[in-house]
Structure formats: structure tokens, C-alpha cells
Amino acid sequence: MARTIVVTGAASGIGKSTADMLEAGGDTVVRVDLNEGDVTGDLGDPDSIAAVATSISEKTGGVIDGLVANAGVSAPTELSPKINYLGTVRLIEALRPLLTKSRAPRISATTSAATLQDNDPQLVDLLLKGDSEAALARGRELAEQGPEVGYANYSSSKRAMSRWIRRVAPTDDYAAAGIGINGVGPGQVRTGMTKDLFATEQGRTMASDAMPAPYNGIAEAEDIAAVHAFLVSAQNARMTGQILFVDGGFDTLTRGDDIW
């Protein structure tokens, strides 16, 4: 049965691959991106997010079956928590009423294997508390200490997103409403964002040292898209609150054999 799926960050990379894959499978896809797509808007701006949600509702008749919340940035500044966490959560919440009208509503969000890397606990806690002003101020403090420290803006935003997914998954707003919500945590992926990094031996070595992928190495965007496509399918009828690390084995190297 054809489904209507919203995909954010759909103009390139993982988002485009996911949208293409879903459409090839017969689904109707509403592509959302900053400057090009069926709906355009800035997910770092609350007013723009509200307008995006309204436009999606108008285009779909007020009902969607799935959301792939993929849009994000890797900036070592407060832009990462602003878009990767605050903007993503706001859009999910804005679209939740449209999902409740589906017979099999599903959400899949792009997190990152960076969830498992060093992060700033203060920033993570502020994001999860919903204190956006303080969180962005903390992000600016980290950015001012240089890109190495500022990277915590990215890893912390992804960790907060992963925790939020697990926090809301079993609640009345999601589980009791029939909405399954999961996250996909990519490791090394060949996209436009990483093209220059993987173009040189030095860059590939640097990436491998930071996030090794012993199983099949660097992923293609289509590898991640395939997981998103399953998670928003009607067939995914029991899995919720999971963060699936599609990272070539980095998770197991980082956390070992303990399931926690």
C-alpha cells in the first residue's frame, strides 16, 4: 500500500537517497529542504518550522504516514544544536497530529555514531530540558574555544536527539498513539558533506582514526537510506525507541560486548 512520507534534508545526501528509494518503492514523498523541494524552510527558525508544517498539512490533506527527520548540519557551532536537536524536535512535534491520523504512523530520525563520542553533558541536559536559550548560549561558549572543543556542539546535539527518541518512544503521545519512532546513527558516509575529507589518504586516515568502520568501510548514502525506508514502513510494527548504529562496527568497538 502506497504511503505518504515526509523527508527533510531531501535535496542531497542521505535525505535525497531516502526520498528516491521511497518513491521507487511506490510511496508518495514530500521533500523538504532549505532552498529546494516540495516544501522549503529553515529548520533553525521556529516560525519557519510552523510554516513548513502548515504547508505539509495542506499538501497532504492533513495526513502523513511517515517522517524521515534527516535534515542536519555538522557545524562546530551552536548551529548544530539549533538544527539537529531543537529544529528536529519542533518539526516532529508539529507533524505529530498529522501522523496520528495514519493507520501505521512511523518516524525515523538521523542521529549519528557521534552520539557515542565525547560530548558536553551540560549542553545535552539543557537541550533535553528544552531550555533553548541557555543551550544555544552554551553552544556559543564551546564554539569560542575553537573547532576541536566546538565539535561537542555536533556530538552533543546528536546524543540529545538519541536520548529524546528513547525518552518519548514509550509515552502516550507516541506509543499509545501508534507512532513508532526510531533513530539511525550513521558512521562514515560518503556524501557531499564528506567528499573533500574522503578525497585524500590523509582525510580517510583521519576519519578512520576518529570513527573506525571495520565492516565494509565507508558507507554510501543508499546504505543509510535503506534503514530509514524500513523504519518508516508499515512492516516495522513493533520496533520503537531504538537507535540503530549503521556504522560499520564503530558502536561495538566503542561500547564493547555489553548491550548497554
Which structural traits does this protein have?
single chain; 260 residues; alpha/beta; 7-stranded parallel sheet; two-stranded parallel ribbon; 9 strands; 47% helix; oxidoreductase; SDR family oxidoreductase
Structure description:
This protein has a seven-stranded parallel beta sheet, with helices on both faces. A two-stranded parallel sheet has the order 7-8. It has a single domain, classed as NAD(P)-binding Rossmann-like Domain (Rossmann fold). The chain has 260 residues and is α/β, with parallel strands linked by helices. The chain has helices at residues 13-24, 46-60, 79-99, 121-129, 132-143, 147-150, 152-168, 195-198, 201-210, 221-231, 250-255; strands spanning 4-8, 28-33, 39-40, 66-69, 106-110, 180-186, 189-190, 219-220, 243-246. The termini are far apart. The model has no long low-confidence stretch (mean pLDDT 95). Helix content is 47%, strand content 14%. This is SDR family oxidoreductase. It holds the Pfam family adh_short. Keywords: Oxidoreductase. Belongs to the short-chain dehydrogenases/reductases (SDR) family.
